[in-house]
């Protein structure tokens, strides 16, 4: 019987376009980058195989490793702010929006989602202007409520700059978790809610005991999207603080560190090999993060079939 | 008619090198702002004297220029004349054989050694671009505001601070318009502006390259100490103030003094549009009568594509670029970009005249970090941006900043080890 089975060519044919495109524009460059990180220029400017020497430099030479750990630490904080602020607010907004008594829900949904479709460049410049100590409306608004003393040039202070940028990014992207959770909440069948109400589970306890467990898988997906997005972030910092990620590298994240190294900056010539090394390290970090999620968290999430 | 021109352009590009009556030269440049000036002023002047040579100015965007030029040179499609960035970017092209050696060009005699240093090999044995222009650092001030407050432009450091104190006490103007958000302002308009006075210009710069001086020595730390004092005279929230913010503060008449580069002349004059009068003063000296030093930074030059089939015509153009006639045309069309030609150039812009007058009274030098010292990692120029901004914000002491720069430089630069 097995011998008479026709070869199912159509599977290969239908897969081919996606596989080819994905291989050309993703897999090959990815391995090209990993490969590039194993080479270096010798004294004569020739490309020579260097093994793991670039990684030894990146993690062993204090000049490189300090910059790397600083960027990684900043990245971790950037991610933490998103997890602690963006996602809870997104869930809260979704819960409010899915409440049947809310009027103009469509308007709020759209208004909150709009920043997400704006370009980083616009968001960066608009917020830089809002927060500008010279022309910005932030100092005037604080002044109007008598809190002028609270104003500081946040983007220029080492201790506040990164948090400020993280919050700007939260403002821009809060629409994404909101929409995903909102969709998840709408998909909860009315029967389940009604049954809960029959049992006397309403309002807050209904949210905690019925809705939240049902949307947990969505929250998991959002967390992993946030993680990947944040560790690949670059645009907002570059637009508002420049490639040197000032003040004093307080806003330097892996993306800007990679950019400076790979493409060079001002008088610094680009170093493709060290750049590829940093890119490989970033790839590793994201890979580990995603794996931890996939194998340790996602498999334990309980799913409910309706 | 249009088609004829297109055809002529096309054929001249394709048949370049063929024995045609007219040779067409193409200039690669990042100065797309200057396209009109080249097309309407400079090229017609050259073509009138050399009817057999036609010149096309073909600029690309400044940020893309280096990358575009490199790929064009590699592909063999670059123009005959190449606008040269100073120091390593051009030196690399010369070492790769993309730029021709112009040491024997007669017009080179019209330029001083300092002017040529940006486009020479490290030992100075070969020069590969004809210097075109430099930019000078100093301070631009609001003359109207100074008159209102009864102030005169300062000559010494003490006078400088007493002027700043007086403006601050009056309260109507921000004493100095500068921010640290973009970092390069702090390094370029502050450190490299007042620094040469303390490290004695070329003397200190060359000693640093030779390894005879260290960045932790007095001459290199003192400029940082001065920057630390500037903090009190900058506007509220200067930490988040960007370069365009500073420019606007000054052109709107809200700030009295602007630590400047001469290229601002061309930007400020139309923006202020007569609302107030501008003046300029050189970086102040420690005591009356001391030699003053200015940063007269070589910024732009013109070189010859080694693969150009029209090398002879291109050399004719380069020879003309080195002439006083070109210098006069260029310096007047672009006030603030000063000719590097040894022959003094008549300029009509009064502010530009102020700036260029310091060349005769002060010792010129170039930015200390540009030649050789920014070749390694960590990059001295980029570190200087960061250190200058930190010192002005008061988050790093001048001594600590100098110490950090020195150890960074010593980590890769042999003579400093």
Automatic annotation (TrEMBL), chain A:
Subcellular location: Cell membrane
GO cellular component: plasma membrane
Membrane topology: Multi-pass membrane protein
Predominant subcellular localization, coarse grouping: membrane
Transmembrane segments: 12-32, 76-98, 110-130, 160-183, 214-234, 274-296
Key words, A-Z: Cell membrane, Membrane, Transmembrane, Transmembrane helix, Transport
Record-linked SUPFAM superfamilies: MetI-like
Any one GO biological process: transmembrane transport
Keyword Translocase: no
Top-level taxon of the source organism: Bacteria
Domain ABC transmembrane type-1 residue range list: 72-295
Pfam families: BPD_transp_1
InterPro entries tied to this protein: ABC_transporter_permease (IPR051393), MetI-like (IPR000515), MetI-like_sf (IPR035906)
Family membership noted in the UniProt record: Belongs to the binding-protein-dependent transport system permease family.
Entry protein name: Sugar ABC transporter permease
Organism expressing this protein natively: Szabonella alba
Lineage: Bacteria, Pseudomonadati, Pseudomonadota, Alphaproteobacteria, Rhodobacterales
Automatic annotation (TrEMBL), chain B:
Signal sequence interval, chain numbering: 1-21
Family the entry assigns: Belongs to the bacterial solute-binding protein 1 family.
Main location: periplasm
Role played: Part of a binding-protein-dependent transport system for a sugar.
Matches recorded under InterPro entries: Bact_solute-bd_prot1, SBP, SBP_1_CS
Keyword vocabulary terms for this entry: Signal, Transport
Protein name according to UniProt: Probable sugar-binding periplasmic protein
BP GO terms, sorted: transmembrane transport
Residues forming coiled coils: none
Compartments reported by the entry: Periplasm
UniProt xrefs under PROSITE patterns: SBP_BACTERIAL_1 (PS01037)
Source taxonomy: Bacteria, Pseudomonadati, Pseudomonadota, Alphaproteobacteria, Rhodobacterales
Single GO cellular component term: periplasmic space
């Amino acid at each position: 019987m097995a011998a008479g089975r026709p070869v199912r060519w159509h599977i290969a044919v239908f897969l081919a376009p996606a596989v080819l495109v994905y291989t050309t524009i993703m897999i090959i460059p990815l391995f090209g980058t990993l490969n590039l990180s194993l080479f270096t220029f010798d004294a004569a400017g020739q490309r020579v195989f260097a093994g793991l020497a670039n990684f030894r430099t990146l993690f062993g030479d204090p000049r490189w490793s300090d910059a790397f750990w600083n960027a990684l630490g900043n990245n971790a904080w950037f991610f933490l702010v998103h997890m602690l602020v963006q996602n809870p607010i997104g869930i809260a907004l979704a819960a409010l929006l899915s409440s049947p008594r809310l009027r103009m829900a469509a308007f709020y949904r759209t208004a909150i989602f709009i920043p997400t479709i704006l370009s980083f460049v616009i968001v960066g410049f608009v917020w830089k202007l809002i927060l500008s100590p010279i022309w910005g409306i932030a100092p005037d608004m604080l002044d109007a409520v008598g809190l002028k003393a609270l104003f500081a040039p946040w983007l220029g202070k080492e201790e506040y700059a990164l948090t400020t940028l993280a919050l700007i990014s939260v403002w821009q992207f809060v629409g994404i978790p909101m929409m995903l959770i909102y969709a998840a909440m709408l998909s909860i069948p009315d029967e389940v809610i009604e049954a809960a109400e029959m049992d006397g589970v309403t309002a807050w306890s209904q949210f905690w005991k019925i809705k939240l467990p049902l949307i947990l898988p969505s929250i998991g997906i959002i967390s992993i999207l946030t993680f990947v997005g944040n560790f690949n972030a670059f645009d907002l910092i570059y637009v508002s603080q420049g490639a040197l990620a000032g003040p004093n590298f307080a806003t330097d994240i892996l993306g800007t560190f990679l950019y400076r190294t790979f493409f060079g900056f001002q008088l610094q010539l680009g170093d493709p090999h060290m750049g590829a090394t940093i890119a490989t390290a970033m790839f590793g970090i994201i890979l580990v993060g995603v794996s931890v999620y996939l194998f340790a968290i996602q498999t334990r999430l309980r799913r409910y079939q309706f | 008619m249009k088609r004829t021109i297109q055809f002529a352009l096309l054929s001249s590009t394709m048949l370049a090198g063929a024995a045609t009556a007219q040779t067409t030269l193409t200039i690669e440049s990042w100065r797309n702002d200057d396209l009109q000036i080249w097309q309407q002023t400079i090229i017609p002047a050259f073509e009138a004297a050399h009817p057999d040579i036609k010149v096309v100015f073909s600029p690309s965007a400044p940020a893309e220029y280096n990358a575009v030029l490199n790929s064009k040179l590699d592909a063999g499609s670059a123009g005959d004349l190449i606008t040269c960035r100073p120091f390593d970017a051009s030196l690399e092209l010369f070492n790769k054989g993309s730029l021709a050696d112009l040491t024997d060009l007669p017009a080179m005699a019209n330029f001083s050694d300092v002017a040529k240093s940006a486009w020479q090999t490290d030992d100075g044995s070969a020069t590969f671009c004809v210097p075109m222009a430099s930019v000078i650092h100093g301070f631009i001030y609001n003359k109207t505001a100074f008159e209102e407050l009864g102030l005169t432009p300062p000559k010494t450091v003490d006078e400088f601070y007493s002027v700043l104190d007086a403006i601050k006490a009056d309260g109507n103007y921000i004493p100095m318009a500068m921010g640290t958000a973009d970092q390069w302002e702090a390094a370029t308009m502050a450190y490299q502006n007042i620094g040469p006075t303390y490290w004695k210009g070329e003397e200190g710069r060359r000693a640093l390259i030779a390894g005879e001086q260290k960045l932790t020595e007095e001459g290199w730390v003192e400029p940082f100490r001065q920057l630390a004092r500037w903090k009190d005279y900058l506007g509220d929230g200067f930490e988040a103030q960007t370069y365009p913010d500073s420019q606007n503060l000054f052109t709107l008449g809200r700030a009295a003094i602007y630590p400047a580069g001469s290229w601002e002349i061309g930007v400020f004059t139309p923006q202020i549009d007569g609302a107030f009068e501008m003046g300029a003063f050189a970086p102040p000296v420690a005591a009356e009568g001391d030699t003053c030093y200015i940063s007269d930074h070589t910024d732009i030059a013109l070189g010859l594509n080694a693969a150009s089939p029209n090398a002879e015509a291109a050399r004719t153009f380069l020879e003309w670029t080195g002439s006083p006639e070109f210098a006069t045309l260029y310096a007047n069309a672009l006030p603030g970009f000063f000719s590097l030609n040894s022959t003094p150039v008549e300029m009509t812009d009064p502010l530009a005249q102020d700036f260029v007058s310091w060349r005769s009274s002060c010792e010129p030098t170039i930015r200390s970090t540009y030649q050789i010292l920014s070749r390694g990692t960590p990059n001295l120029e980029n570190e200087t941006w960061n250190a200058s901004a930190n010192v002005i914000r008061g988050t790093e002491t001048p001594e600590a900043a100098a110490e950090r720069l020195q150890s960074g430089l010593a980590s890769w630069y042999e003579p400093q080890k």
